[in-house]
Design goal:
Blueprint (H helix, E strand, L loop, with lengths): L1 H35 L2 E2 L7 E2 L3 H8 L2 H32 L6 H14 L3 H10 L5 H8 L11 H14 L2 H13 L2 H9 L4 H29 L3 H7 L10 H11 L3 H25 L11
Antiparallel strand pairs: 1-2
Length: 294
């Protein structure tokens, strides 16, 4: 009995750092931000309760709210599908039995470790400047250089490429899913005369739909919260064409010191993310297949 209690205490001791971190770094700040969203609060002063004034301002008088929301939706719709498509394509390639494939898997995963850093965003900015490496390469091919960061139509795609470049985590999950598909399904399909495309649409893709759902939800959440590329590369320009919601939230809280208003903006973003997550999970019953193949 004493040994069981000691094992139980040991288990609690192991999870204690996580529990402390959860309460001090997540739960308490979450509760505080909700309380601050009903106040006028700057870092330099004390919070003053103002009720729903922050939320009224967001939905009625703040022109940047709808602007940043539209930009963020455009960013999410562009970046997430392209990122998942690349991840799946690379996973299919890396699923082949090729000598040295482990090294290639590692190399393809590296962007996910480095891609969200400030250094990579700075590098991206230099790559796509008017006289950057990308335009110099286009000139060598006798193609017209583009204003990647100065053209409002191209700038959102340029910063979106940073997110697309970080497809490694999704790729690893797709690759793990491919490894779990029973080979007998492929053998039976080939015996029946099915071609590669038919096998992909009828076996591979349906078997991967649970992982596709997980990647879709997680990457959508991450894309809605993206901040670094817009802040480092374009600062929200030109003409606020890359003024992502995360950048607006940062500016309100740490540039204009409106922490109460920034807290309200963060809770609006939380509701938006919660809605799209729920929508994805609700729709999954019609396209996600668990253990059955169409």
């Amino acid at each position: 009995m004493k040994n069981k209690r000691r094992k139980g205490y040991a288990g609690y001791l192991y999870i204690l750092p996580w529990v402390i971190g959860f309460f001090t770094l997540q739960l308490v700040p979450l509760i505080n931000s909700f309380a601050y969203s009903f106040t006028s609060f700057s870092i330099l002063g004390s919070p003053e309760f103002i009720g729903l004034e922050n939320y009224r301002k967001i939905f009625t008088t703040d022109p940047d709210f709808l602007q940043s929301l539209a930009v963020t939706f455009r960013y999410v719709v562009m970046a997430v599908p392209v990122k998942l498509l690349f991840a799946l394509l690379v996973a299919l390639i890396l699923n082949q039995e090729i000598k040295g494939i482990g090294l290639f898997r590692t190399l393809y995963y590296l962007p996910s470790i480095l891609g969200g850093s400030v250094a990579i965003s700075v590098l991206w900015k230099f790559l796509f400047m008017k006289d950057g490496i990308v335009n110099r390469f286009l000139s060598l091919l006798h193609l017209v250089p583009l204003d990647w960061l100065g053209n409002p139509r191209l700038s959102i795609w340029t910063i979106g490429l940073v997110t697309v470049w970080q497809f490694g985590s999704s790729m690893i999950l797709f690759l793990a899913g491919l490894k779990q598909i029973p080979k007998v399904l492929y053998e039976a399909a080939r015996i029946d005369g099915a071609g590669s495309m038919r096998i992909f649409w009828k076996i591979t893709l349906p078997e991967l739909t649970p992982i596709l759902l997980f990647n879709l939800v997680m990457q959508t959440i991450n894309a809605f919260q993206d901040f670094t590329p817009a802040f480092i590369i374009t600062q929200g320009g030109p003409m606020k064409s890359t003024y992502l919601y995360g950048l607006m939230l940062y500016n309100q809280g740490f540039k204009y010191f409106k922490m109460g208003y920034a807290s309200a903006l963060s809770w609006v973003l939380f509701i938006i993310i919660l809605f799209f997550t729920g929508l994805s999970l609700k729709s999954s019953s019609s396209w996600v297949h668990y253990g059955d193949t169409l």
